Amino acid sequence: MSTQAVPRKSINVKTFMKMKQAGEKFASLTAYDYCTAHVVSSAGVEVILVGDSLGMVIQGHDSSLPVTVEDVAYHMGCVKRGNQGAFLMVDLPFMSYYSDLKTLENSAILMREGAQMVKLEGGAWLADSTRLLVQHGIPVCAHMGLTPQSVNHLGGYRVQGRDPQKAKEMVEEALVLQDAGASILLLECVPTELGRAITEKLEIPVIGIGAGPHTDGQIMVLHDMLGLYPGKPAKFVKNFLAGNSEGVQGAIIEYVKAVKAGTFPAPEHCYT
Ligand code: KIV
Q: What is the pTM of this model?
């Protein structure tokens, strides 16, 4: 296997729409610090997410709920300094977007640290917040399906949209968020066919995690794809470091190639 980094053109918010139209898949990973941002972006990953999953993989909590805007801002700044040209997305953490003022103030803090897009978890009820952010020049990624900030409401980390009525509602809500101005939709833990339906219905690109192989891009938590997180991995996780003789950078390059070739996720990583 070659560890040659994938050559990259400059990436901005418009890049992903062009890639979708060209049928070109893009690879995303989380990163939380200078060195991981450097290795991830050098390996050809197009989107780095400074995710609130940092609550679990960096801070050792059992959910993302304890994560604050200050925590995310700190990690955002570290990632910004290590980034080699990837597009930088950041999570607005739990309860940081409960009012218009909070949404704008907290997004401004994260954009000043280097974020190029904010991600919000929820459905059509976030249409007004999405519109507000876009009006203020802040690109938005909507996050639907399994939304970990709502784990207590959902009753656990479960596959979403298995019920046909719920699946239909999810397609409609995704369209509402697209109309409100979201630039990207991230879809987590839904059956493959729903991942495909939403990707085909939306003009904006869809990034999947546990959403099947048909989405326009894929994302994973870095610590999952390196097999660092203790405990049983979710079905959608593949450890790219296991058996890879080229180390961490080799594992990430293999992930990027697999996403682009459409060989990841394979059927064993998908929900029916
Ligand atoms: O916080 C996170 O890491 C996420 C995942 C979907 C990648 O939101």
A: 0.96
Under 8 Å between Cβ of 23 and 64: no
For ligand 1, atom 2: residue with the closest CA: 51
Instruction: Tell me whether residue 167 is exposed, middle or buried, using C-beta atoms within 10 angstroms of its C-beta: 0 to 12, 13 to 18, 19 or more.
Output: middle
Q: How many whole angstroms from 203 Cα to the centroid of ligand 1?
A: 22
Instruction: Provide the pLDDT for residue 10.
Output: 82
Ligand 1-lining residues (CB < 6 angstroms): 30, 49, 51-53, 91, 186, 188, 209, 219, 221
Q: How many CA atoms, within 13 angstroms, populate the side-chain half-sphere of residue 21?
A: 6
Distance CA 229, CA 245 (A): 20
Instruction: Identify residue 153 by its one-letter amino acid code.
Output: H
188 counts as catalytic: yes
Q: Select which of 46, 188, 254, 268 is catalytic.
A: 188
Angle at 225 between CA 219 and CA 228, to 5 degrees: 135
5 pLDDT tier (thresholds 50, 70, 90): low
Place of tokens 């990973």: 29
Q: What structural domains and CATH numbers belong to the chain? A: 13-269 (3.20.20.60)
pLDDT one-digit tens code per residue, 130-152: 999 999 999 999 999 999 999 99
pLDDT digit string, tens, across residues 215-228: 999 999 999 999 99
Q: Residue 20 corresponds to which amino acid?
A: K
